[in-house]
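WARN  no MSA supplied for this record, continuing single-sequence
INFO  ligand: heme C
INFO  echoing inputs
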Amino acid sequence: MRILLMISIISMSVIALSFVAKTNAGLPHIPEDSLAEDRLKYMNQVLESIKGKEGWKADSVFKNLKVITGKITAKHFLLMMNYGWSTELGVSCSYCHDVRNWESDSIEAKNIARGMWNMRQQINGEILPKITGKDYWTNPKVTCITCHRKKPKPDAP
Ligand code: HEC
Ligand code: HEC
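INFO  complex generated
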């Protein structure tokens, strides 16, 4: 009986780990923090609520996207919310969201994040190429963590 329990615990951990490894694919590796579990719980809740539409374009699945448009799929969008923005700022989803109403803009940080995204796109797409002549979609680029270092407000100099 005890052996059976051990085997099922081990196999469940392997499944959980492979899930994390798979969903994290293609994003920069940033060490997890104590909020990782909370973020994963919310991401999985949203994934569950859009079942069957994960591969659709994000702006055709979600209701209130103003800056993240184009080819990105709903699943990729959620990976970015979790392993990108939240992890890079060291926060959970509730820092920017009313988690019972994802499309709501009631928290100011959410709207600031839209401006931050536009700034990032402008830095990589226009400002850096003018300075160095390089293409920052293929070279290391500025992302949230460049400034935030896992804090919602970057350190003062
Ligand atoms: C730093 C702020 C920030 C954090 C943290 C964050 N989000 Fe977001 N989220 C946004 C912004 C901004 C938008 C809207 C993007 C746009 O306008 O294109 C958004 C949009 C969404 C939407 C689409 C809602 C709709 O129908 O319009 C979902 C779902 C979502 N986020 C889920 C999450 C989840 C899950 C997490 C945590 C794993 C998370 N977000 C963490 C800022 C954040
Ligand atoms: C070039 C540096 C830089 C980059 C890149 C950057 N930020 Fe910021 N961010 C800042 C600074 C500086 C502040 C503080 C502004 C203030 O307090 O007046 C800030 C503040 C914020 C805040 C408000 C925090 C609060 O509670 O007051 C959010 C949310 C935020 N950034 C999200 C993001 C996201 C998401 C990204 C990536 C898409 C990002 N930032 C990329 C520099 C940056």
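Helices lie at 2-23, 36-49, 58-61, 74-89, 108-132, 144-148.
INFO  checksum written, moving to next record
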